[in-house]
Amino acid sequence: MKHTLLSLFFIAFTGLTLRAQTLYFEDFETTADTSLPAGWTQETLASDGGFLSGTSTSLSSSEFPIPEGTGRFIATNDDKCNTCNKSKDFVKTPYIPLDSTLTSLFLALDIYCVNGRIGAKVEKTTLEVSVDSGLTWESLGAFGASLRWEHYEVDLSRFTGNKGIMVGFKYNDAGGWLFGVCFDNIRLYLPPPNEVKLTSFTMPEYVVQGNNDISATIRNMGADTLRSLTIEYTVNDGSTQVARIDTLSIRPLGFAVLTHPTKWAISTPGNYNLKVKVSLPNDQADVDTTDNYGNASTTVATRAVQRTALVEEFTSSTCSPCSLYNQTFIPIMLEDYGANKPNSRVAAVTYHMNFPAPGNDPSFNADAGARASSYNVTQTPNLYANGQEFWDYPRTTIAKAFEKPAVMKIDLETISRNDSLVTTVTVTPYIERAAGARLFVALTEDYYEYNGYNGETEFIHAMRKMLPNPAGQTLPAMQPDVPIVFKTSYKVVAGDVKKGNYNFWGSDIVGYTTVAWVQDMGVGKHVYQAAFDEDVTVGIAPAAHEVVASFFPNPGNGQLFIRAEGGQNEPFSINIFNTTGQLVHHESLGTYPQGTQVLHTNLSHLADGMYLVQLNAGARQTTRKISISR
Question: What pLDDT score was predicted for residue 510?
Fold first, then answer.
């Protein structure tokens, strides 16, 4: 119970200085057992005593594990108390005298507050203030939720002019069996007139060469409105760019994002370290200069391109929670984002695990197990977006995963030849990077049906084989705009899928998709870029030169139009193949002068389904997949 309560004389005297002065401080370090500090009081209906002092070990429970803080603290634990009533837990500081001359007063505290919910019952914790020795209380609002300890600063200056003040914390479990709340390091202090803090300075992981903004988030920690300050930055400890900003109006404890008026002009790709400093709030010396600095690193790229997000799911047909989760997750992947389909920005791979018991998912194989080990996956379902684990809010998480531009392009083509899938991957980086990144290639099956142990019957994006192996291909050192080409092949076996083998459920290669991505397999598991090729070309040799063409409508009812770029007097023809590689239609479309032509063919005699269209223009050709659906 280390607490500090300064005398009125001391407060009045030191209030003349520029430094922040502490009126009251409590960090609970000398409290005994579960007792509150001297002078603290509480109200509670709970049978466990309400707010108790202790440590993370003594105050935690199985459903409300409390992160380690700075030692001892106070907490009320609704989970640990089980069925007791914690709807009116209210803990209060002692009465703290205030000098009548004070004009500013701040409160600082640390809190762990999850704001849990069970059905319609949501727990709530509010900050309360009294200036009449606790006879009446004013609520200043509820604390937000967090999964870690958070630091709060609150401006209580409007309560100055009173003879004293009490601060209270009120917890209400809303009649549910929920979690609780914790408090530590309660401090009432007088802020200096002028004080600024740099709260955040970050740079994007990558920036494109050219002119880039340098921005930082600041907070006014002084009692006066912040109207001006100096901001400066350096790059790789080079020359300092200094600017004075005098158009501010930031209230006490208010935040603002400042952008240096001089942009960072960079033309050379590479890695850079930037340092930022803020100073001279309102043209006055900053009292605490330890919080005026920030630094960040970034990599400069020659260009940025649209990102395709990699979404990986670890699941099992023996996992009951997976069945429940996939009822929401699969529609998001298929309907919201069209994963692994043309024009989608989401590449998807699903790995089937051999757990939980009975662990007999037939789609499990060693490649899936190795991928799980690389992420230390020990339970299902488990999801990753661009190598980062997530669980809640998949729709939002996936959207954010493809919003950020990429600094790498992946071109991917898969061709079926003699029962083998031949895949060519071209990685074009726009950054410098040392050797060591990994290229992964996954052969996936779009859809299959199976009566799972957990009740699921439909499965999507199942990984059947990693190429060349689950460890991936180690890439050499990268140079901007210098492509790296990787080629691999795999002989497909269809049918008789059993746990441990790599067979595909179906023999229709139209249902196969190749997914490729480049990933740093260090601590961060960062994915640079992903790509997919759902258009596996079947039974057709690759063309030396492609025809630039588009096919529409697709899907269509059998009437197919083709917009193509033709050379002078090049004859056009088409071949239509079914998904087994059988030629089902051939037609000569005529010879045309050079330029863009719109061609037409009637395929209404073909049954509904997927087909491969090979368009020939002289010695050139291109192949696309179309769908006929009436």
Answer: 67
517 burial type by CB count under 10 A (0-12 exposed, 13-18 middle, 19+ buried): buried
* CA 560, chain centre distance (Å): 42
Residues of the chain with pLDDT under 50: 1-17, 539-544
- HEC-encoded secondary structure of 167-201: EEEEEECCCCCCCEEEEEEEEEEECCCCCEEEEEC
User: In a 10 Å sphere around its CB, with 0-12 CB exposed, 13-18 middle and 19+ buried, how is residue 607 labelled?
Assistant: exposed
Q: What is the pLDDT of residue 508?
A: 65
| Alpha carbons 441 and 353: distance in angstroms, whole number | 19
DSSP 24-42: EEE--TT--TTPPPTT-EE
Cα separation, 462 vs 444, in Å, equals 5
> Reduced to 3 DSSP states, what percent helix, strand and coil does the chain have, rounded to the nearest 5?
10, 45, 45
| DSSP-derived pairing of the beta strands 537-538 and 595-602 | unpaired
Q: pTM for this one?
A: 0.68
pLDDT at position 624 is 77
The continuous run of DSSP H or E covering 518 comes out as strand 512-519
Predicted pLDDT at 543: 46
Least Cα distance to 216 among 250, 175, 258 occurs for 258
3-state secondary structure 196-214: EEEEECCCCCEEECEEECC
Pull the structure tokens for residue 12.
């009045």
Q: Are 551 and 613 in contact (CB under 8 A)?
A: yes
What six digits make up the tokens of 312? 């990986």
Q: How many CB atoms lie within 10 A of CB 191?
A: 23
Length of the chain: 630
pLDDT of residue 584: 92
CA 410, 411, 417: angle at the middle one, nearest 5? 135
d(CA 330, CA 319): 15
For the chain, domains (ranges, CATH) are 3-190 (2.60.120.200), 196-301 (2.60.40.10), 309-538 (2.60.40.10), 549-628 (2.60.40.1930)
Which segments within 267-345 are labelled E, that is strand?
A: 270-279, 293-301, 309-315
Structure tokens, 483: 């492509």
Nearest to 410 by CA among 517, 542, 312: 517
